[in-house]
Amino acid sequence: MSFTVDPRALECIRALSEARAPSGFEDEAIAAARRFVPGGYTVTEDCIRNLYLHRKANTGTKPVLMLDAHADEVGMMVHSIHPNGTLRFVTLGGWNPASLPAARVLVRNRHGEFIRGMIAAKPSHFMTEAERKALPAVRDLVIDIGACSAQEAQEVFGVRIGEPVVADTPFYYDEKHDLIHGKGFDCRIGCAALLEALRRLENEELAVDIVGVLSAQEEVGERGVRVAVEKVKPDIAICFEGCPADDTFTPDYAIQTALKKGPMLRFMDTSVICSPRYQRWALELGETNGIPVQASVREGGGNNGAFINVAAGGVPVVVTGVPVRYIHTPAGMTSYRDFESTVQLTVAMAKALNRDIIAGF
Questions:
Q1: What is the tens place of the pLDDT at every residue in 172-227?
Q2: Domains (range + CATH), the chain
Q3: Hey, which residues does 173 pair with through a beta bridge?
Q4: Active-site residue (options: 73, 196, 218, 222)
Q5: Looking at the whole model, is its pTM more than 0.85?
Q6: Active site residue 218
């Protein structure tokens, strides 16, 4: 598939990736998203930090297509401060604990500033043989901001309990190899795809009304979408994700989410069996339109689609995931090619859906 990188879309991906916004602290991600909302949409927000984008061309008489992507990222929260000035933390979302020691992080202080720190990794010189072989437990890790006492951490660095922590990972686009490096692509790459799809659909004649949602707190139990789906009351939905690529550690025959092979539509994971007729329709639509798509059957994971599916009397849902290598670690890798394929598939679906097709799902 040939594609051209749109500088505005790439800047949207960058701004969302660089937003420091773990679960419960989505403000920076929402602020970044607002900069890229097309003019043909009205914007509202609720107290849980869900952002709603209603197409101004909506009539109120057509089936409602809900596009959802979660705005939060995995992060941490300051739990307490040790006497030596290091910070105990709890995780917001399901980190891979092996990826945490020596990771660089940003800790928000009482002044709203993000100060640099790192998750302390004991030098090998001081480790026992058992420690060298053991997987680190999060409860045993601390964040070191350079303070030498609890008093200094509080009074000089301005740290206090309850503040958010995010990975300190720079954004970079390798144009030569079409590789996007950064953090938070689960699900900021999905948020960017949703916003770009809304832009391309802004002036289209459609048989559905469209509402976009950037939902909060997915990583800690899909909390925001439970509120959003009751507000939107959709007839059908597309749930965006930054989904874990499996092409660097899986036998060839079992790879289902490879980088640069298009969005992954999952038949199931541990939280949902996506509407089978809708799923097949979406996959076939992609193939008919020459859009690369992948399908998967997942033995783990969960997503917002599970709660959309069983809300409002039952809502057909598919989950469209942009492949991301190494999600739920401090750094990830994705591609503009897969972003573009996801946007194209979404636009094709929105233009093809109508009341009769939806009734068949």
A1: 999 999 999 999 999 999 999 999 999 999 999 999 999 999 999 999 999 999 99
A2: 7-73+183-359 (3.40.630.10), 76-167 (2.40.30.40)
A3: 180
A4: 218
A5: yes
A6: yes
